[in-house]
Amino acid sequence: MTITATQAAGPLNVTVNEMVHLLPQTRQLRALHTVIRDRHADLGRFVTTSGRIIRQLIETALDLLPYEPVDVQTPVGETYHGLRPAKPICGVPVVRAGESMEHELRAVSPGVRIGKILIQRDKVTKLPRLYYSALPADIDRHSVLLLDPMLATGGTALAAVEVLLDHGVAEDDIVFVALLSAPEGIAAVHARHPNLRIVTSAIEERLNENAYMIPGIGDFGDRYFGTDVPR
Ligand code: PRP
Ligand code: URA
């Protein structure tokens, strides 16, 4: 499946292949998006509704991780041939907006370990700046869910992936989880890391001149944490 987005510079094609997992575009998902994309959504509705979409993204991402067989005995004395994750899981939210996803990951997988990477997009240049990271020393033995709701230019994602690779994590052990993705961001990430899997709930038309996605959602972090209120 090929999604075409029109850019000022010309058409940009993003192939939704096995590396890009777009949530099924159900009517319910579209209704949830309608709530959070509405500029008048209040803080409570924005947090609750984005949380519902993020939960779906997390469940989809968990399904992409490796599993191994395990047998359990049922209460009626029979054997159930089941599965369990083959590796421990580490969630890595990109601070700040990625922390909106940490809560949903912990809710479905309470024993998960959490690393943090603090990257901020420069307000003027839109280039990412890495300030800080704190990751488990043995993160290279984990399946890693890299959590950031916004994949726009892809600069932040690339910088965060670089931190993980520097800590010995293999590219195919990383699943990047994003609520919204721009075709430009997906293309930038896959140009450098073709084996990186991306789970997303929407692929936007394109970026505007300020590197915001359109139709988009505005500044996710400001809206989620309520820091977009004028004095
Ligand atoms: C936003 C967003 C991503 C980044 C995406 O963060 O949460 O981290 O921009 O943009 P990119 O793909 O063009 O790099 P921002 O730096 O605004 O910080 P925030 O999390 O505090 O909102
Ligand atoms: N960050 C956001 O929060 N929104 C965008 O559209 C792009 C980057």
Give the helix/strand layout:
Blueprint: E1 2-7, E2 10-15, E3 20-22, H1 27-37, H2 43-63, E4 67-73, E5 79-85, E6 89-95, H3 99-108, E7 113-114, E8 116-121, E9 128-134, E10 143-147, E11 150-151, H4 155-166, E12 174-181, H5 183-192, E13 197-203, E14 206-207, E15 213-214, H6 220-225
Parallel strand pairs: 3-13, 6-7, 6-8, 6-10, 10-12, 11-12, 12-13
Antiparallel strand pairs: 1-2, 4-5, 8-9, 14-15
The structure holds 1-O-pyrophosphono-5-O-phosphono-alpha-D-ribofuranose and uracil.
EC number: 2.4.2.9
Family: Belongs to the UPRTase family.
Cofactor: Mg(2+)
What does this structure look like?
With 231 residues, the chain is α/β, with parallel strands linked by helices. The chain has one domain (15-68, 84-225): Rossmann fold (3-Layer(aba) Sandwich). The protein is built from 6 helices and 15 strands. Strands 3, 6, 7, 8, 9, 10, 11, 12 and 13 form a 9-stranded mixed beta sheet that branches. Mean pLDDT is 93; it is low at 1-12. 1-O-pyrophosphono-5-O-phosphono-alpha-D-ribofuranose binds at residues 94, 96-97, 120-121, 126, 128, 148-157, 185, 211, 219-221.
What are the main properties of this structure?
two-stranded antiparallel ribbon, binds uracil, 15 strands, 231 residues, Rossmann fold, 30% helix, alpha/beta, binds 1-O-pyrophosphono-5-O-phosphono-alpha-D-ribofuranose
